[in-house]
Amino acid sequence: MPPEPEPELEPRLQIIKVVREDDLRSQIGKDGHYFDLVDFSRIRAFHVPLLHRSSWLKNLVLKFNVSVSGCGPNDKMGHSVLAGHCLPVKRNYPVSLDFIVLNEANRYVGMLFVKALSRPSDILPSLRSLAGFPTHEEIELYEEIKFEPVMCEAINIHDTFRYGQIQSGDIICYQKSPKPENRYPSINFFFQHVHDQKEVQRKVQALEEEVLVLKRQACLEKKKANMEYDELKLERDNAVRQVDELRDQNRHAILEFSLEDLEQATEHLSDVCKVGDTEYGRVYKGIIHKTTVAIKLSCSQSLFQQEVSILRKCRHPNIVSVVGVCSEASALVYEWLPNGSLEDFIVSTNNSPPLSWRNRAQIIGDVCCTLLFLHSNKPSALVHGDLRPGNILIDANYRSKLFNFGMSNLFLAPGTCPPNLTARLPYMDPEFLTTGELTPLSDIYSLGVIILRLLTGMPPLSIAKKVAAALETDTLHLMIDKSAGEWPYTQAKQLAILGLSCVEMTREKRPDLLTKVWKGIEPMVTRPFVPYFHSASEGSCAPAPAHFFCPISMEIMKDPQVASDGFTYEAEAIKHWLDLGNNRSPMTNLKLPNEDLVPNHALRSCIQEFLELQRQRGHIPDR
Predict the structure, then answer these.
(1) Fewer C-beta within 10 Å: the chain N or C terminus?
(2) CA-CA distance, 619 to 614, in Å (whole number)?
(3) Of these residues, 23, 98, 261, 386, which one is catalytic?
(4) 386 a catalytic residue
């Protein structure tokens, strides 16, 4: 059998890049490249079979009309680099040189063919012409040896090119002979400057890349934070939705009682169990499921329906809780509050002990918070409509709870005139009497009258005129209810001014409940920290003694000082009081005999001992 023919091998190829003068002109001086001539990665490459390399070069000369100045060393990619120039071929000039002129543009100006035995001085006119220099301009020539590190040697223009070992493809730089004031006195200085500039550019580029990376990281972090925020917001929205659902369930979680249940609880609605008889209906005290409750038989079905509707919408700590209803008897079953109403305390019904000024301030704050809750109801505000001490109940802790919603039905029904108008009239909004329209500002008017009553203990009729007159004559301290204890005069005066602003005859002049009324009341009823004394025998907590608190700042004193009125104040608070030019007592409003202050060491020692005891028992954190 004849042997199988061997497979033909693909011819070996060599990659050759042709550098033309156009490439030099387009690249030199751009992007900081002044002396490296060209970027080989941007030069067109040719794949040439090694066997046909010489014939290819002949065709290249004919095709591009170039003069091949030499086949230099390989570039960084291992490609052969062929330098060519679009000039007529001059075979009698064996040396071709590239020239760069050093001026403002630092540009490539061209290539010259010279004889090896000629001198640089012979081509000075041509160099001046290439650069556009004047005819007699003195110039200096340098040969670039290395760029990094900078190495450049001056050329003696009177030596031949061959003697100076200048060959084809060398780079010759030249410039005007520098003057003393020039920035770069020699090309070496300029080379170093360019080198430094490239280093700065490299660092700037590195910093820009780092900034870009940081921006990307920040963007990712922001996206991550936004995602976490969206997740948390979703969780919050779900939690709010669940709370709303539970609240809706609780709103409807009102027990339904039968008439028989009510009769059993009140001994068949016996007068013995009756505790009140008002325009809203009869109120009984009873026991249902071993729990003491208040049972109100509404005077009308419409009033019953309205109050049930309101109580289903709002649950608040300062609104009397409804336990259940009896539709058959139009009755509501409430929690039982043993202390009665605020009116009972003001007029001392059944010898009720007078409320202290602290309790009175707290009750005012409770009522204000409850009205804020009602008035913020959506889509429309809820108005109590009959806010007066008789409809404010007091629990065992002397906190207030609103009661008896629905005055609007009693007053707005055609042809009706509610009973007990005399008791209600001083608290009624004057504009309501003329327009028949109830608004949240109607409740603010009623609150103002309640504030003045708790402050003075006086009957409500014409109370605003009397308090206003006392403020004008500086005799308010004589009107303050003494049974409330030593009410700080500064607090009392603030309440008097606030109460008067609430009882303005026109609604437009009354203050906003949140930004004005509550802002004035809040400091009186809230403190950042109220210590409690723990009783080991009773296992319960009791508030700190009242005389530990400064009457001005309402906080436990750190540095108690006795003023000339005989009362003890926190040093910083009483000094600030005196610095404002006040010469009257913050407690009595009487003129101070002097502005002397005496440290109350005994009280300070008691307070420190008390606080240290609370820290040891863990009731307050260590400092």
Answers:
(1) N
(2) 5
(3) 386
(4) yes
